[in-house]
Amino acid sequence: MHFPKVLGPSTKAVIFAPxxxxxxxxxxxxxxxxxxxxxxxxxxxxxxxxxxKGKKAGSFGDIGILTFNKSLNVDLGAAVTTNxxxxxxxxxxxxxxxxxxxxxxxxxxxxxxxxxxKSRRIMKTIFRGDKYLRRLMRITERKHFRIVDGxxxxxxxxxxxxxxxxxxxxMTNQLMSYxxxxxxxxKLEKTEIVYLKNEFDNLDRYLQDRRRIAKMYDELIxxxxxxxxIVPKNSAASYxxxxxxxxxxxxxxxxxxxxxxxxxxxxxxxxxxxxSPFFGGMxxxxxxxxxxxxxxxxxxxxxxxxxxxxxxxxxxxSIVNFxxxx
Length: 326
Description:
By secondary structure, the protein is an alpha/beta fold. The protein folds into three domains: 3-99, Aspartate Aminotransferase, domain 2, CATH 3.40.640; 103-198, no CATH class; 203-325, Aspartate Aminotransferase, domain 1, CATH 3.90.1150.10. Helices cover 45% and strands 15% of the residues. The protein has helices at 3-6, 27-36, 85-98, 103-115, 120-141, 156-163, 169-182, 190-200, 203-220, 249-261, 289-297, 310-321, and strands at residues 13-16, 39-43, 51-52, 55-56, 63-67, 78-81, 99-100, 144-146, 151-153, 185-186, 226-228, 235-236, 241-246, 298-302. The strands form five sheets. It has a four-stranded mixed beta sheet. Helix 4 runs antiparallel to helix 5 (120-141) and helix 9 runs parallel beside helix 12 (310-321). The longest helix has 22 residues, at 120-141. The chain is globular and about 55 Å long.
């Protein structure tokens, strides 16, 4: 494990972020964080419904994070969990500072309530309309933000500063001031909260559907060039996606192209965090070879979008297995 090589006096927290709705044992990382006196953040944004050794994802460490739109049929909403009252108070204060009401969304939902409409399509239209309107307003109102002394256009300057590790405290404060003013997160409307609560009643059914698709993949995908994720004992996955690992990158590229041509959306392939400009100051001598290999060779197969559609799952499996693709 590389953590002892990258932890330092300025390390404030360890963020544990398992992907694809897969259960990953957090205890080895949690033990290191506890030993070093560092906060442990259980970032289970993709793991709603996941169980690890009898505990739910999002319940480990000091803070847990859950995102709803990745697992439920909702457009937005998330939660932070903690058993620490002091942290809970700080989190609530941050939420109050950064969340804001959206006038267009409020009007839209009041019309829904007045008309007694419950169409999911109408709710999605309001959400998307509000999202794009707020984005347009941010672009037109201010294309620049102040950094120390003068106006600097766009984000490349900030990213360059991060890469060179020259982003000063003053620069950071100016940047945060910009995000406070122009990047507020919208508060959930009452209608959305009611819908979200009702959606939790469907979570078990969604999990069963996704696990059924994953089991089909287990049985149907027999390509010898692949590696599969094995769910540990006493754990349960939620399968936002079903990742398989190719040893040959050319074969991976061909499968992605064929899946896309067949109408399947392939996403969820991420760059390793240490390659991000925001982590430019990290000790790169450790190599992180495993992270780099996985990021370059993983193919996250669709699960959630298929629901219980066994024919489409069989089609995906046949494309992955098709040896004539090379």
